[in-house]
Each structure stands twice: as structure tokens, then as C-alpha cells.
Amino acid sequence: MAEGQIDVTKEKERETPARDGVAPITTEVRARHGGSGFVPPSETVFGLEDVHVYYGSFLALRGVTLDIGRNEITAFIGPSGCGKSTLIRCLNRMNDLIPGARVEGSIAYHGQDLYGEGVDPVEVRRRIGMVFQKPNPFPKSIYDNVAYGPKVMGLKPRSMGELVEESLRSAALWEEVKDKLKQSALSLSGGQQQRLCIARAIAVSPDVILMDEPCSALDPMSTARIEDLMEKLKQDYTIVIVTHNMQQAARVSDRTAFFTAEAAPGTGDRTGLLVEYDRTDEIFTHPSDKRTEDYVTGRFG
Predict the structure, then answer these.
(1) Which of 25, 61, 143, 157 could form a disulfide with 272 if both were Cys (CB 3.0 to 4.6 A apart)?
(2) What predicted TM-score, i.e. pTM, was given to this entire model?
(3) Of 21, 61, 18, nearest to 273 (Cα)?
(4) Are 281 and 256 in contact (CB under 8 A)?
(5) Domains and CATH numbers, the chain
(6) Angle of helix 160-170 relative to helix 142-152, nearest 10 degrees?
């Protein structure tokens, strides 16, 4: 294995779900990468090449090619139904849990085929954590929520108490809950619950944190705290966020990918596609595609 590559296999090979043998479709879709001024990531964590995602026979997302950089925040923006959440769930193989879902094309994680033979989806999801749209703490204590992942995955930290504290500190929650760790996590406010979910993801020592609209159910003050937290977390983690809030994407992300939904060739079905991917300041001030310009200026549709 090359130096710096992260192994997502296990010593004991696990069976992986059989992949449908249908060949990927060929399209003319290619995202514009900002023209001559585009600067690629200095280090690539995810490399996607001509990715198509199906639910059964329905093509949900087609022809996605982009690289996601290390210690950057990458935002996926676009209208509902354009495949943003579908794509982010492919990055830690959450779509494996949906009957009939399949991925065609190539998704490499630190150079390793994320869907290759011998890759363990459980190990993938440990290294690539997910925070969902609605806070989903377990009906357990605050302490047990954070400790749950390490216990289930058989991790053996020197001190579980220290790990819980460190994770809560990293999620900017420790000072608010240090005196009530045995209380139910459900007693926390919505913003606190979401930061608890971030702490729970951090506790298993991931490399990447995926966030699928993490602030959509939160008030402005809680949203601001999550955004401040993301800025701090990117020093140690790579972050990918799906958001409908363009102002949020402009505030927190280093790069932005704009998706839309258009009719697929030969089918008439509307499917998601990547229109443009660039540094966030370029996407919002000098977009290369009129569809991007229309969306970020509010003229879309």
C-alpha cells in the first residue's frame, strides 16, 4: 500500500453486496471546473470519476467528476431533487442500505476504490462519519451517546472518560454538559443535540465528517455555533456539507459544487448532475455557467 493511503479493508475479508452488472451509461455531462483559474486541492481525499447513482432502474445522479480536498470544507448546493444527499451518502456507502441502490463509475478514497472487493463498509463508516439533517441522539445519557460508537466498534481507549470529554470539547459542548453527563441526551436543546451528534461522530476517530443539512432544523444562533465549529473542525478533519442555504455555503466552505436536475438523454426523466465546481468565492462571484449564476442570484427556475 502506498505511503499515506488509508486502508478500509479488514484482515478478515467480509462479503460485500453484489453489484448489478449493468454497464454505466455514457453522457456528455462534464462539470465546468472554473476555467484557467481553477486550483485543484493540494491533497485529494475523494476522487470521483463519472459517477452514476441508481435506485433500481431510476438514474438519480449522472456523470459526477470532482476531487474533494483534505482539511477543506466542501459544500454541495442546488435545488431539491438534484442528488446532493444521494451523492454525500455514497461517500460512506450509506446507500448500500437502500435496496436497489447502486453506484457506477469510480469513487476513490485516498486512492483506494471505495466500492472495491474486500472493502469493509463498517470500516468505511468509521473513517467517514455522518451527521444528519435532524439531530438523532440515542435515548441514552449524554455520556453513553458519545461512548456508544467506540464500545460497539471494539475500540479500547486508554480512558473512556477522557475520550468522551475530548470528543465533547472538540464539538464545543463540554462546558455546557460537563455537570450533567448522566442526564438524557434528549433533554438537550436542538443545537446541543446536533453538537452531541458531532461529538459522537468524532469519538470513533474519523478522517472525514459528512454533514447532510446539519442546520436546517436549527435556529440562527445554533446555526452560527455549528458554523463556527465546522471552521475549527476542518483543522483536523475533511468536511463535506449539503446545504440549501447559499449564505451558509458562502460563509463556511472552501469549495462549492452546484448541482441541478435536468432530463437525462433518451429517457426524459429528470436526474441530478454536477454543473460547476470551484472555489467558493469564484462560484458566488464569477460562476462559469449561467445555470450556476441564475441559482446563486435567485433567478433559478
Answers:
(1) 61
(2) 0.86
(3) 61
(4) no
(5) 35-296 (3.40.50.300)
(6) 110
